[in-house]
Amino acid sequence: MQPMQSFQQIFGTVPTVEAEAPGRVNLIGEHTDYNGGFVLPMPIPRTCRVQLRLRNDDRVHVWSANQGGSVREYRLGQEEPLADWLDYVQGCTTVLRKLGHPLSGFEVHIASEVPLGSGLSSSAALDIALLRALRSAFGIPISDLDLARLGQRVENEFVGARVGIMDPLVASVGRPGHALFVDTRDLTCRQIPFPERGEIVVLDSGVRHRHSAGDYNTRRSECEEACRRLGISQLRDMTPKDLDRIEALPEPFRRRARHVVTENQRVLGAVAALEAGDLSALGRLFDDSHVSQRDDYQVSVPEIEVLVALAHVESGVWGCRLTGGGFGGSILVLTQAGQGEAIGRRIAEAYGRNTGRQIVPLVVGRSA
Fold first, then answer.
1. Does 18 score more than 90 pLDDT?
2. Are residues 208 and 347 in the same domain?
3. Which of 52, 257, 265, 347 could form a Cys-Cys staple with 17, CB 3.0–4.6 A?
């Protein structure tokens, strides 16, 4: 069933506005964005598509192809968190109204190709796609950068997930086939073409996470406590020269701060490796990042470790790492161009034999 047909079937009319936004894979720079650091994501060829038609009242009617079930409904001005997927829609109308943008009711159909809870930013793809549709439908003068800021506010203020700016930013301004180097302190961005001789294979573990759940928010709180103990405003203020100070912190603050500081340096190294076309160096940085996430930030799970071990068996792999917030989700594997699909298939088959979980690799590269 195509999205247009679904809209007609559900709402008895045709949409007047359409918008979409991609999911993303973060090449490197995990849990650095809410610490004021550096990140290096790139969009994936999977999008969330939104179709919308305005109403003449204050009612919002929402149907999701991914969630099924009946049409959900709420009234503008009476948004209330429900701890489910409708919160992302309610959050978008809430933040726009708080900024003084007048809204009427609307009907909206949502269909996403981004696997939910996979660490590929399905929520940011939804936020940005819907905000784009609302911007168009109501003629709201908001830049792409401001759209990303609004997407972050939806998650932080309404959904209750204390995520950083990276996910909505790459969903809003990312370019296919390019990594987006972002300094999250001042939001300066640079597009870096992904080398043609490499590919990224994304493998979803099938273990779902929710950023609004406790573990993710706990990690952010631990970073804030590390900053308090160090007398700084953000961990971005620390460099490798400060590691002696960090080593003096009690656990778990020592590990959390050490990950963020060393991960920032790995992002800078990855940018240099990409610009030089040195994929071997990039792969080593991926491996180091994964070890840091597993041991210092402690966001990996057994299924992720199975995937990583299987990837390292493959001869055409330069490196791999957990990508996304962790506690499940996906890994990315850096391979030689033209080999990603076959390597991903072999890893997926072996993973299925080990865990009983059936997964489908996603190849992302320069030609995406």
1. yes
2. yes
3. 52
187 neighbors 145 (Cβ within 8 angstroms): yes
Of 5-14, 64-73, 94-103, give the range with the top mean pLDDT. 94-103
Choosing from 33, 167, 204, 288, which is the catalytic residue?
167
Domain count, the chain: 2
Mean pLDDT of 263-283: 98
DSSP, res 115: P
Asked whether residue 174 falls in the same domain as residue 322, the answer is: no
Q: What is the CATH number of the domain that holds 47?
A: 3.30.230.10
What is the predicted pLDDT for the residue at 5? 59
Which domain, by its residues, includes 199? 195-365
Residues 167 and 117 in one domain: yes
Indicate whether this model's pTM tops 0.85.
yes
Summarised one tens digit per residue, pLDDT across range 123-170 is 999 999 999 999 999 999 999 999 999 999 999 999 998 888 999 999
Shared domain check, 358 and 218: yes
What is the rounded distance in angstroms from the CA atom of residue 61 to the CA atom of residue 313? Answer: 49
User: What is the model's pLDDT at position 21?
Assistant: 98
Q: Cα(348)–Cα(357) distance, rounded to whole angstroms?
A: 9
Q: What is the DSSP string of 45-111?
A: EEEEEEEEEE-SSSEEEEEETTT-SSPEEEETT-----SSTHHHHHHHHHHHHHTT-----EEEEEE
Residue ranges of alpha helices (H) inside the chain are 3-11, 86-98, 122-138, 144-153, 166-173, 214-230, 243-247, 253-276, 279-292, 302-313, 340-355
Domain limit, last residue, from 137, 168, 191: 191
Count CB-CB contacts under 10 A for residue 75: 11
- What is the distance between the alpha carbons of residues 339 and 140, in angstroms, rounded to a whole number? 45
Distance CA 126, CA 63 (A): 13
Residues 184 and 202 in one domain: no
Whether 15 and 151 map to the same domain: the answer is: yes
Domain boundary among 170, 191, 212: 191
pLDDT, residue 322, reads 97
Domain co-membership, 286 together with 303: yes
Confirm whether 167 is a catalytic residue. Answer: yes
